[in-house]
Amino acid sequence: MSLQIVLTRAAPARRSRLLLRHLRAMSSSTAxxxxxxxxxxxxxxxxxxxxKALNALNLSMIRxxxxxxxxxxxxxxxxxxxxxxxxxxAFCAGGDIKAVTDAGKVGDSLAVNFFREEYIxxxxxxxxxxxxxxxxxxxxxxxxxxxxxxxxxxxxxxKTLFAMPxxxxxxxxxxxxxxxxxxxPGKLGLYLALTGYRLKxxxxxxxxxxxxxxxxxxxxxxEEELVGLSAADxxxxxxxxxxxxxxxxxxxxxxxxxxxxxxxxxxxxxxxSVEQILLDLEKEGSEWSLQQLExxxxxxxxxxxxxxxQLVKGKTAxxxxxxxxxxxxxxxxIRGHDFYEGVRAVLVDKDHTPKWKPDTLKGVTLDMVxxxxxxxxxxxxx
Length: 382
Description:
Blueprint: H1 3-9, H2 12-34, E1 35-40, E2 43-48, H3 59-74, E3 80-85, E4 90-92, H4 97-105, H5 110-126, E5 132-136, E6 139-141, H6 143-146, E7 153-156, E8 161-163, H7 177-180, H8 188-195, E9 199-200, H9 202-206, E10 212-213, H10 219-227, H11 234-247, H12 262-268, H13 274-284, H14 287-298, H15 301-314, H16 319-335, H17 338-348, H18 366-371
Parallel strand pairs: 2-3, 3-5, 4-6, 5-7, 6-8, 7-10
Antiparallel strand pairs: 1-2, 8-9
């Protein structure tokens, strides 16, 4: 019997209960479909399954993954975790930030819960007691970085496209970006954070974001060999990945796309403020430095200033403290203007002409920056 017939015949009170139960079931089913969790021998396998949405991460997916990760972390029968994605085009293109900004506009709790629970999941990945292998095949940005970069092993392919483009949407490189970005060589992390520069293929390994690089066609074979380990540990998993990496000749002779500018990046992005960085780029006057200057002038001034402080503080902060800092920053963005405006310009209207407030670095006062780092009544607890 169809739901419509049942509802028609039911009394009003029962009709409401039936409809609510149906909606909950649909929600549960959707969450289950969006993430596939399974055991394959001794391996727990997570498959992100929203290929039409580029596997964008939403709150229901976070709430599906986190308890299972906790379970596998203490399960003697699970010796490793693998995370991958369906579709081939994207590992995870980011978090579902349009839903977050829609919620923030009306004061809905999603704007708080999404960041809180996403960061708790990111922290759990980084503190997992067992090998965690992320197949970052395809687009890997924002929330997808948070699902992968804190694990012990990150495997890139020729299709990998990595970026942290948050300053272009009035946010900041969150999901633990304050921890891993300043720990990349020199000022490379700050450069990636401020400009949103895209790393492709082997570049992701050259930069230190991926630990290994293999041909995408070898991923199924690699997964089969990993799950075949009777008792996986960092050493045995690492040996397999090292072998695949060393045997991969694809683009092996291709240099890092930023190799000619590594010295420039360390020198020109070493200023004590964003203002100083822009002055140094302008003073340098080279074609490359002026291109970077034009890129930065398009970004949210507020985002760039809080990002600069985030990475300065994050360089010496503990893994846990970075997430506490970033949670405070996320709520500062929710209270502000630029996050909503950036999402509108890039993801909704797609006119790519955001109207930042303030629209200059000078207009972003020290108090405005400080506001993003102040303790909150409902601070993050890990």
